[in-house]
Amino acid sequence: MPIVEREPPKGRRESYVLPKVPVPPLKQTLDMYLTSIKHLVKEEQYQKTKSIVEKFGEPGGTGELLQEKLLEKSINTHNWVYDYWLDDMYLNQRLALPVNSNPAMVFPKQDFRDHKDSLKFAAHLITGVLEYKKHIDTRALPVDFSRGQLAGTPLCMKQYYRLFNTYRLPGLKRDTLVIHETGSTEQEHIIVACKNQFFVMDLVVKEKTLKEMDILSQLEKMVKMAENTEERQPPFGLLTSDGRTEWAQTRDVLIKDSVNRESLAVIEKCLCVVCLDDPSGMEVGDTSRALLMLHGGGHEKMGANRWYDKPMQFVVGEDGVCGTVCEHSPFEGIVLVACTEYLMKFMTGSPSKIGRATSVSELPAPRRLLWKTTPHIQGLLKASAERLQRLVRDLDMDVHKFEVYGKEFIKKQKMSPDAYIQVSLQLAFYRCNGRLVSTYESASIRRFHEGRVDNIRSATPETLAFVKAMTDEKTSLSDSEKIKRLWDAINAQTNSTIAAITGMGIDNHLLGLREISQEIHMEMPEIFTDETYVASNQFILSTSQVPTTVEMFCCYGPVVPNGYGCCYNPQADHLLFSVTSFHGSTETSSAVFIKALDEGLVEMRDLCKTSNKPQSNKIRCRRSHSPSVLCGSLDRA
Ligand code: COA
């Protein structure tokens, strides 16, 4: 049954109905699963997996039973995969949030004349946040519509309503995503971090919302207070940078004291955190700015001037390094982009309203949050600082602007830019490692009610054939064979994309089958303990397109120790890549990967130029705006 998402906002009277996320046919998913792994594992292992999968899928077998349960669940819930996915992707994960989970949006470098200038920027930014939040509270945000593949479908807006009213609470085994009621009065404050101190800025004083000049005045007072070394509190923000279980254990210790309990409660209910950073002392380039967003440079730099659990955390550095660090569980990068682009446009488009006269005398002094420490807590802080430092030392990051061409060139070839870039990433990986690996590309399923993402498995057999043609078989194959293989790879990738965005991806489905088997207390089916399934969920290449229309870029870390995180931002005339890996792995190097990517992109362009007559895209999936009728069976060209 379709669900009415919400009343359309005033002025947009069109009805707004989103279908539920479908449960794909069992056989389709199992067939696609086998196809997705056949070329990535040894023949012997494949044969073993094949027989396990066939047994799982046989008539009257475990697969059919679980599928039936999943179909029942899909009838009885708004979104059968939402909680499974949220737990699996985020809440059950135990790794530290910085680098491993929290993405960052890096704003253009600002040229502040002096410290006051950076505070004015922060005050203007906070004013923009309050304006944006008004749109959220009054449900006045325009509905998003899909672009690119299958353009024109309305998208679920739920994620926007979780930007400012959520908090990821650490748990010993599983975190909790706390959601406060939107517009709740308890939430009318933000937290300002400065020199590792946390201050409360009440946004409503004597029933009046602070004006920008008042916000600036409060920020100035906070900066002064932070400079007072006698009153300085220990850097408790560090604790949120730790592993989730470690932080949960520490939090249990902290809340035994009422002072700590109160400080935590205030932070956990704030709208957002604004981090006023000191100059980092690092040379300011794209890569260093991205690093400062992801981990703050560790405890010696800005790593403790953060509260990583809070989904929206704005950074304003005195040296012009600015951006947003996000706790990812409530929303996707695309929603973050929409919000931050609004803010950037607000900052440049509407002049700062700071006049000469201020009303500061009526404002109460800002409140510094206090912490009670013990030698035990001091020890925990030290341990968190050391673990963050290890993460900082380990992260190998390279932000690269590929300027030879951009998505317009790719479109001229009649190819999907996203598919083309994905193929180029596979080529780069093959060049570096001589094999392809399980790859994750996030695919939005926001065309469904409360849809988040599924996975596009980009390491397709067709792409393997292409990357071999460009490397091992380079001299033995003709250009026409190479271009044919490129088209096969692009078509396979585009088909996988369409399958994923229309709810026919295999990863969410397999996850659902696995989780429902545990809900009904079944012994874990062999298909999910099989080494192929386990390995195919270790995404050595974790990729995501996060396009922007204003100058900024997104970045995130790898999801496995021997992997790469690759976030890309295709622009008309250039492509921006943020590549991350860990120095601790001997199998990876971000610089080497970027070099291979650069070379491959140039070779792919040269190859396209040899064929001046592009072949038609052979996607046979019907292009309709109704996702529910799409891709029941895909013709994998
Ligand atoms: N010939 C010419 N142009 C083509 C084409 C073709 N064969 N195929 C696509 N194009 C055009 C599209 O019309 C579109 O044009 P536009 O720039 O004018 O809008 C453009 O190329 C981009 O399309 P494409 O590259 O195919 O990608 P997409 O926009 O459909 O995006 C995904 C594909 C998978 C990235 C997208 O569906 C998605 O899911 N995005 C969300 C990812 C996400 O969640 N990221 C954040 C994770 S935290």
TrEMBL record:
The active site is at 328 (proton acceptor). GO terms for biological process: acetylcholine biosynthetic process; neuromuscular synaptic transmission. GO terms for cellular component: cytoplasm; neuron projection; synapse. It catalyses: choline + acetyl-CoA = acetylcholine + CoA. Pfam families: Carn_acyltransf. Keywords: Acyltransferase, Neurotransmitter biosynthesis, Transferase. Gene3D superfamilies: Chloramphenicol acetyltransferase-like domain, Choline/Carnitine o-acyltransferase, domain 2. It is an enzyme of class 2 (transferase). Residues 21-598 form the Choline/carnitine acyltransferase domain. GO terms for molecular function: choline O-acetyltransferase activity. PANTHER family: CARNITINE O-ACYLTRANSFERASE (PTHR22589), CHOLINE O-ACETYLTRANSFERASE (PTHR22589:SF14). Belongs to the carnitine/choline acetyltransferase family. This is Choline O-acetyltransferase. It comes from Oncorhynchus tshawytscha (Chinook salmon). The gene is CHAT.
